[in-house]
Design a protein that fits this description.
RusA family crossover junction endodeoxyribonuclease; two-stranded antiparallel sheet; 4-stranded mixed beta sheet; 6 strands; about 30% helix; alpha+beta
Length: about 170
């Protein structure tokens, strides 16, 4: 276990293979579906599609920047490590002068936030498939409160391709 933690820290200290920043959009969880009749199901949350669309576009732009920088245009494939920091809206009832954690239902379940984000990374051809993700670090923070927190709702997404050396 200790070896894995050290290797993970070493991986996160290298430059990511892809960095996607989504600004001024509220992260939306992809979770439950609602049955609307005749065997049809739709997303329960109306916010999921706009969130996935904006992550999709930001990932496409990041992949284009990666290509322009001469770092390749291929879809990231193989074992991947992903770090995501979701900046979520701070409720009016939260203390203004101290750092607090987004633990309310309104901030979304972190696993469902990851699901919508990973699906958008896949449809944008940034990553081959979300099944390639073997390691995840995820945080929810309020604007301006915490490492990699944005000034408004959004997300910072970093992806690393893992090598065989990292698995040892």
């Amino acid at each position: 276990m200790t070896t894995h933690i050290c290797e993970t820290l070493a991986t996160s200290q290298t430059a990511p293979d892809l960095e996607v920043v989504v600004r001024n959009h509220r992260p939306a969880p992809q979770g439950s579906k609602k049955h609307i009749g005749n065997g049809r199901m739709i997303e329960h949350s109306k916010r999921v599609k706009p969130w996935r669309d904006v992550v999709h576009e930001a990932a496409k732009a990041a992949m284009n920047d990666r290509w322009l920088a001469g770092r390749g245009e291929e879809i990231l494939d193989g074992p991947l490590s992903v770090e995501v920091v979701f900046t979520v809206r701070k409720p009016a009832s939260a203390p203004k002068r101290r750092v607090t954690w987004p633990t309310t239902r309104d901030s979304g379940d972190i696993d469902k936030l990851l699901r919508s984000t990973f699906d958008a990374l896949t449809t944008s051809d940034a990553i081959a498939d979300d099944s390639r993700v073997v390691e995840v670090t995820a945080r929810k923070v309020f604007p301006g409160e915490g490492l990699d927190a944005l000034d408004a709702p959004g997300a910072v997404i970093r992806v690393w391709k893992l090598t065989e050396a990292a698995a040892r």
